[in-house]
PKD domain-containing protein
Amino acid sequence: MELVKKSLLFLGLIAVSSCGDKVEKSVVDCFGQSILIDVEHKASDSNASKIDFNITYAGKETVDNAVRWDFGDGTVQDFTGRDASHTYTKAGTYTAIAKVGLNNGYCSFDIKETVTIK
């Protein structure tokens, strides 16, 4: 198993080093930016099944204005901006996924947030 890991790492390094500087820079930049972006959520004060989501970002790049949300219950919706709300109709645990881009899609991330509705 260790040999397989080392082989895959070696092949990955060869692939990155064989690309031009721009591609190599974008891989490093996007990976670094991915640790600076997150999704937080909280239940609405008036309805515990209504969840308000907020994307947080601590970097210097521009967060794309359009965000595609998959709320984990079969609902997929596009929102403008970093905030979204969704009302779940059944109790359960859901994985909400926000597809977030930076700099007009230069980097793109799927940010996951686990939500439990009682």
